[in-house]
Design goal:
Elements lengths: L3 H8 L6 E4 L4 E5 L4 E5 L4 E2 L3 H5 L4 H10 L3 H4 L6 H7 L17 H4 L43
Antiparallel strand pairs: 1-2, 2-3, 3-4
């Protein structure tokens, strides 16, 4: 599958989920922040991520792991390498240079307005705000290099 990168990012949180069976193929997935319902028959999750992009969310991965179903069996066929190859079997025609394009006068006379750039007021921040998963950098002395002393 060519979507393995996305799956690897989501699979890291799978082991932290609690799974409670509701029916044969319907499960309640419980994590620290919210409860979601995963239905394997309908191939849907109440977080709607699996419904929208048809790539497994971490809740569906946790249920698949609980049931012993492989991730590839639950994922959509759109993310398989064979489906990607099939999409480009016919070949892709090159686009001509813009000087050879036939553009109608109605489109040629339209003006495209650019987005207004919002400049933030005040001095920009020196440091980036770290996310919840990032560890803090320990400050150290520039002379001796020890972590507990700062010059």
């Amino acid at each position: 599958m060519f979507a393995d990168e996305h799956i690897k990012d989501r699979i890291e949180t799978v082991h932290r989920r609690e799974i409670h069976p509701i029916h044969f193929n319907t499960f309640k997935v419980d994590d620290k922040w919210k409860e979601t319902t995963v239905d394997l028959d309908e191939r849907s999750c109440s977080c709607r991520q699996w419904d929208l992009d048809e790539l497994l969310c971490s809740h569906a991965m946790a249920v698949g792991r609980f049931k012993g179903v492989s991730i590839k069996a639950l994922s959509s066929e759109f993310y398989t390498t064979g489906f990607l190859k099939h999409a480009y079997e016919m070949g892709v025609n090159p686009v001509l240079n813009p000087e050879y394009w036939d553009i109608s006068d109605a489109i040629r006379t339209r003006t495209v307005l650019l987005w207004k750039k919002n400049n933030l007021q005040g001095r920009p921040k020196k440091l980036m705000i770290s996310s919840a998963g990032e560890k803090r950098k320990l400050r150290s002395c520039s002379k001796c290099g020890k972590k507990d002393t700062i010059k």
